[in-house]
Every structure is written in structure tokens, then in C-alpha cells.
Amino acid sequence: MDFSNASALVTGGGSGLGAATAEALARAGAKVVVLDLNRDAAEAVAARIGGVAVVGDVAEEAPMAAAVEAACGLAPLRLAVACAGIAPAGRVAGRQGPHDLALFERVVRVNLVGTFNLLRLAAARMTQNEALADGQRGLVVATASIAAYEGQIGQCAYAASKGGVVALTLPAARELARFGVRVVTLAPGLFHTPLMDTLTPEARESLGKMPLFPARLGQPAEYAAMVLAIAANPLLNGETIRLDGALRLPPA
């Protein structure tokens, strides 16, 4: 996919996987809109890449619609990447009692509803794009997690939300195929994101040894490179791709 006359929208673009993706897309020639709940982070990334910052909750219609409109105002929206997500832990039945229902709902709202919010609004605009030479009009890349398959103890909310992202990928791709709009999901393993920086160096080192090869944490730039690889290969559609160094999560 040629980004020389295209815009891209990245949610969660203020840090981690999203920031790396926004930077990579800008280098590839796209005009990038960065949506994030953190105003300072969104504006910092947008300023760094010559993009546009939009602040808001991914699960709310108004800020997402504003971000889509901002992207379309720059150039045809060809790529949307959902990187926003949260991962609080909570046991189904722990020492403090049953899992907080509001917390479960919040995780599903941000991770799953937020992803679908981007998908529905971005895809609706992409279907109106002029088709490229190969028939493509756009691409939506969602972010799940290997926890969708091997959720660990304390991850019921997170695993359920990411499992939902995996489940919506194929039906969305089937529905949008007639318009030339692709839908692909990435399921990352353990990546060095700002969340990891809250851990001790010893904890990060231990986690880094879990993938089989390479035996280290993934780098956000590697996620971003995979997004560009998906964009470059039109045969990738309706699939969830693990990006995890052959890691399979243990129960805990």
C-alpha cells in the first residue's frame, strides 16, 4: 500500500506500540492522526512526526469520529490501527471477594468496544475511497494479545476482551471484502512498553527470558514493522497473527 497520498489513524498513539506505529507510518509517507486519552502524550508524538493529535476515549463516538474526520481532512484514510488498551488484573474469586464487575466492563469497553468503534467508523469512510490499482480501499489493523489464547490467572477480563477482538476479525473482513477493505489483527506477546517500565529490572529480565527466540521482550518498532508488512501484502486478510517469539503463556 502506497502511503504517499494517504492518511492513517492510530489509537493509543501517545505511547508504546501506538507511538512506534505512528512514527513508522509517518516515515513511510502517511499523514498521521494520533488519538490518545493522554493529551500531552498525543501532542508530543504528533509534533514529533508532523501529525495531528486528537484527545479522547476510544470507546466514545465523538472523539473517534473527530479523529476519523481529521484523518480524512488530510488525505484519503487508508489505514487505521487500534493500539489503545488496558490490562488491569483481577481474580474471579479472590481474597477481596468476587471480581469487580465495573472493572471487567471497563476492560471490555476500552479493549473490545474501543477497537470496534475504530473499525466501524474508519471502515465506513474507507469504503468511499477510490480503489487503488489492486482494488484496495483501506486496511484496519487491530491489536489482540496472545492472552486471547492463553490467558493467565488474573487475566479473565483482559483475555475476554482480546478474545473478542480475535473473534470479530474474520466476520468483519468477510463483510468488508466486497469494498476492498481488509481487517487483520496482531496478537503480540511480551513487549517492552511503558507498562514494563513500572516493573523492576529483575522482573523485566525474567519476563524477557520467556519467549523461545528471540529470548527477550519485543520492541515496539517490531510491532510497527509488522503493521507495515501487513499493509504491503494484500493477501493478508481476516487473520490474527501472533507476534510472540514462539511464547506460550503458562497459567501464572
UniProtKB/TrEMBL annotation:
Q: Which domain of life is it from?
A: Bacteria
Q: List the SMART domains hit by this protein, alphabetically.
A: PKS_KR
Question: Which keywords does UniProt give here?
Answer: Oxidoreductase
What InterPro entries does the record tag this protein with?
KR_dom (IPR057326), NAD(P)-bd_dom_sf (IPR036291), Sc_DH/Rdtase_CS (IPR020904), SDR_fam (IPR002347)
Instruction: Fetch the PROSITE patterns from UniProt.
Output: ADH_SHORT
- The yes or no answer to whether the keyword Oxidoreductase is present is yes
Q: Where is the Ketoreductase domain?
A: 6-193
Enumerate the Pfam families for this protein. Answer: adh_short (PF00106)
Can the keyword Transcription regulation be found in this entry's annotation?
no
- PANTHER family named among the record's database cross-references: 17-BETA-HYDROXYSTEROID DEHYDROGENASE 14-RELATED, SHORT-CHAIN DEHYDROGENASE/REDUCTASE
The protein depicted here goes by the name SDR family NAD(P)-dependent oxidoreductase
What species does this protein belong to? Falsiroseomonas frigidaquae
UniProt lineage: Bacteria, Pseudomonadati, Pseudomonadota, Alphaproteobacteria, Acetobacterales
